């Protein structure tokens, strides 16, 4: 169970502690933040409501610890990351239990997230040793007008303190995707987990604690974003911010100052279906892409743009598959589980009501009980409906019928988002032309959008983000180039 056995140290009464200076601590505020179980809609856990003074202390110790960590050999950093990964995978059950109860993620998927996270940490350790162990050597006579009198040596050095802010839907995996690259690159890390998912993140951090990382190198600060959010993101001790979430990231980017930013802020991922597509393949991917984890994924299919001539056939195939989706609590591994909060459910319902008023075709009856919303396919959606443009983050999927490929591309590119998209066709030449035309960070051909495998580049354009993720890109983003130039008294040519 959460907070027991290996994890007993992180719990004080019924409130989970925060992590700073290598210790599990109670906040001096004497306050806690409640975490509501999306299924039962009652308080499941409580975490510390940290103060600004405690943030300051974490930043101070992170800065000090980073200076020593940067002098730690690469192989030693990697060794500790491998150790943390092994502990994470060995003690996955309590973390998975937290995911079930905090964010209503199906039990099987919760275990998968923890195991995947351990694999990510290990891969990052290996990749970091490779790419950080290499530098560049340049000679001056490669540029016109110069003799070989200068040798230039370049290497990658850490940025300092990295602030990591993961989202509720992957509070473990998208935390370690920031933590591991930061650490292997020689940075320290301050983690601000989402409220929903905070306890799972605290359990994950304890695995790094047990691995023996130096005190102060890793901190995990819990609390209300309204009280410490801006204080964290605008803190002068922060040298880099890696954020995954919603439009809060836009506000952060405007306030953060001159530091590197890595941000993924959601998407309205379009699925363009051509007349020659394998409709069985399309239907299967629409179900997987649109409804897994109740549609609460940045890379979920958010709108289907299908050629009119095959729309009826595709909708019929998807309707059959939707009818087979199981709906219920995450403990029973249902396909559709409650969305994360009542406010999320209300927002989704608002989009549905708008579509209903504007006469979209409901392929299923709209049904909601508390935070649980039954899967819904909306056909004959038009651009004047909110659901055509807004990200529902729930199990509701709009279908827009198009008369040309150009119409589909236009709708995709008219969105303020640009995370991912997909195209289904048997013609690879058409697929490549459409991919080039789509204004998104990634285009999947004949498969639903997806983040991963975790070493693949992952990025968005427009309001979907800044920078690129993926293990290698994250390591590079969390370093800067250092150059040393050796000046020779006279030109020197090898074997000259």
UniProtKB/TrEMBL annotation:
Pfam families, alphabetized: Aldedh
InterPro entries: Ald_DH/histidinol_DH, Ald_DH_C, Ald_DH_CS_CYS, Ald_DH_CS_GLU, Ald_DH_N, Aldehyde_DH_dom, ALDH-related_metabolic_enz
Top EC group: oxidoreductase
Ranges for domain Aldehyde dehydrogenase: 24-483
Major site of localization recorded for this protein: cytoplasm
Reaction equation(s) it catalyzes: D-glyceraldehyde 3-phosphate + NADP(+) + H2O = (2R)-3-phosphoglycerate + NADPH + 2 H(+)
Gene3D superfamilies on file: Aldehyde Dehydrogenase, Chain A, domain 1 (3.40.605.10), Aldehyde Dehydrogenase, Chain A, domain 2 (3.40.309.10)
UniProt keyword list: Cytoplasm, NADP, Oxidoreductase
Gene Ontology annotations for the cellular component aspect, listed alphabetically: cytoplasm
Enzyme Commission number, as recorded: 1.2.1.9
UniProt superkingdom: Eukaryota
The keyword Protein transport appears for this protein: no
Active site per UniProt: 264
Presence of the UniProt keyword NADP in the record: yes
One term of GO molecular function: lactaldehyde dehydrogenase (NAD+) activity
Localization annotation: Cytoplasm
Family: Belongs to the aldehyde dehydrogenase family.
Designated name of the protein: NADP-dependent glyceraldehyde-3-phosphate dehydrogenase
Lineage: Eukaryota, Viridiplantae, Streptophyta, Embryophyta, Tracheophyta
